[in-house]
Design goal:
Strand 1 and strand 2 form a beta hairpin. The protein is 57% helix and 3% strand. The chain has 2 domains: 48 residues, no CATH class; 416 residues, Up-down Bundle (Amino acid/polyamine transporter I), CATH 1.20.1740. The chain contains 16 helices and 4 strands. Belongs to the amino acid/polyamine transporter 2 family. SLC38A9 subfamily.
Length: 538
């Protein structure tokens, strides 16, 4: 996150102090803010409460404010970013940069499951649901952005959405927001572990076969030709992770030994522990933050891969509105909530959108920029999902063969898929320690007042998180299922319930609550609840 300010205007530096219990310093300096700065901050906050927020008579003079290197911007996940300078209380990021930051933050592993979600919902209903969920989550995100402005007689300029939840719901809002935030973080880390196991397995398999000049044919149905597409789920009698036939004069015993020790679910998830567990225990993840650009590169490359594959495979569509045949699925299917669960996490940015928009140079454009970002995210999901579904070769393969990770529909020796897996594997291995760091900060700081109380505490937490990832990769390596469960759970609070409840309560206190507003927002809450319940029924 690149936040810049104009150093000539010191009035924008209020409030300049974040309590040490809420600051995450990437350098892990325990004395992050001086006692003098903390005391001055308390005096400034005291004087500011003696007058209304609109009255600037009691604002502290410029000479008592700290130097730029002591300014922090607090994020909802417990992180305080240092800022360089400022201008009138807001960042200098242009609308274009703000839009791109939101797009880049929202785009994640969910994009790999969008084609599968469209298959589960049906082609037509899948497209409709992506559009409707995009609009609904955008509206709820808009309510989050506006939630601070509806609190009267209180300076909320430095508040985040969890602070708003605490204002309306007390300690329950504080702890419940922590719980659902942890669900989203741990859910993402579990998905990452499953995907890293998948990508590492296929990458290692490709390298071994290439080095030893081995021609391997997977025992799964698939198309012929240079642009091969496979159907791993059809090989019910032969689990797709390791079953293959070798055509080579090489030592067969060595090949069989490799397959025994290089298994997607039996061994590879455990190999990752040796690399990632030590990284999780580091006090500072600042080194890995430098690789955030890989997320953008990975998404751009996936769009390129999808386009090239579709150009070679062509379009294979047949519209069967309610009946299913051997190769195609109906346009409307009862399994559509599986897609809405995935989309809840795919469009999820509600717990940090205030921070991203607060750095927008033109605050009056926040709603416009947020809407454009959501439009671009929805367009990216639609493009990848529709193109993969439409170009999937049916016949000879059925659309039911589309995997929860669409890269699994390409064999391990496919060079473009190999490059995609390399990109994603390296990106996820750099992001995973950052996610673990955020989980550690939120949980341990709440219970112990310190993000790193001791190596023992951190190790126990990391072992629990890694254990969950290994268990899922071993027994339930279904990223679509994990994404929809975690998305529907954390989305229930941050997307559907809290924004709607806060809006209704604020209108009621102002005497402006109307029946249409009440009915609409209760309906939104019920939709979120139904979305969660449906994940466990279908």
């Amino acid at each position: 996150m690149n936040i810049q300010f104009n150093p000539e205007d010191y009035k924008c530096k209020r409030p300049f102090h974040v309590e040490p219990t809420n600051i995450v310093s990437v350098n892990d300096d325990m004395q992050r803010v001086s006692d003098e700065a903390s005391a001055m901050n308390k005096r400034i906050h005291y004087y500011s409460r003696l007058a209304s927020p609109a009255d600037r008579a009691l604002i502290a003079p410029d000479h008592v404010l700290p130097a730029p290197d002591e300014i922090y911007v607090y994020s909802p996940l417990g992180t305080a970013f240092k800022v360089d300078s400022c201008t009138d209380g807001y960042g200098k990021n242009s609308s274009l940069v703000t839009i791109f930051m939101i797009w880049n933050t929202m785009m994640g592993t969910s994009i790999l499951s969008i084609p599968w979600g469209i298959k589960q919902a049906g082609f037509t209903s899948g497209i409709i649901l992506i559009l409707l969920m995009g609009i609904l989550t955008l509206y709820c995100c808009y309510r989050v952005v506006k939630s601070r402005q509806m609190i009267p007689l209180t300076d909320t300029s430095n508040w985040e959405f969890p602070d708003v939840c605490k204002y309306y719901f007390g300690s329950f809002g504080q702890w419940s927001s922590l719980l659902f935030s942890m669900v989203s973080l741990v859910g993402a880390m579990v998905v990452y572990w499953v995907l890293m196991s998948n990508f590492l397995f296929n990458t290692g398999k490709y390298i071994y076969n290439f080095v030893h000049n081995i021609n391997v044919t997977d025992i799964v149905p698939g198309t012929n030709g240079s642009n091969k597409v496979i159907c791993p789920s059809a090989a019910s009698g032969h689990p797709p992770q390791n079953r293959s036939v070798m055509f080579s004069s090489s030592n067969r015993t060595g090949f069989e030994l490799f397959e025994e020790w290089w298994d997607k679910s039996q061994t590879v998830p455990f190999y990752l522990i040796a690399v990632l567990l030590p990284l999780l225990n580091l006090k500072s993840p600042s080194f890995f933050a430098k690789f955030n650009v890989l997320g953008t590169v990975s998404v751009v490359y996936l769009v390129f891969l999808v386009t090239v594959k579709a150009a070679h495979l062509g379009i294979h569509l047949e519209f069967n509105w309610f009946t299913e045949n051997e190769f195609f699925v109906p346009e409307f299917r009862i399994l559509f909530p599986q897609l809405t669960g995935v989309l809840t996490l795919a469009f999820f940015i509600h717990n940090c959108v205030i921070t991203l928009l607060q750095n927008n140079r033109n605050q009056e454009n926040n709603v416009r920029d947020l809407s454009i970002a959501y439009f671009l995210v929805g367009l990216t999901y639609l493009y990848v999902g529709v193109i993969i579904f439409a170009s999937f070769p049916s016949p000879p393969l059925s659309k039911e063969c589309i995997e929860q990770n669409f890269l699994d529909n390409f064999p391990s020796d496919d060079i473009m898929s190999f490059v995609a897996r390399i990109f994603l594997l390296f990106q996820m291995m750099t992001v995973y320690p950052l996610l673990g760091y955020l989980a550690r900060v939120q949980l341990l700081r709440q219970f112990f007042g310190n993000a790193y109380p001791s190596l023992f505490h951190v190790l126990i937490l990391n072992l629990a998180i890694v254990g969950a990832g290994v268990a899922m990769a071993r027994f339930y390596p279904n990223i679509g299922g994990i994404i929809r469960y975690s998305g529907a759970t954390c989305g229930l609070a941050f997307v559907f319930v809290y924004p709607s409840l806060i809006y209704m309560i604020s209108l009621h206190r102002a005497g402006q609550l109307t029946w249409p507003a009440l009915i609409i927002h209760i309906f939104i809450i019920l939709l979120g609840l139904a979305n969660l319940i449906a994940q466990f029924l279908l």
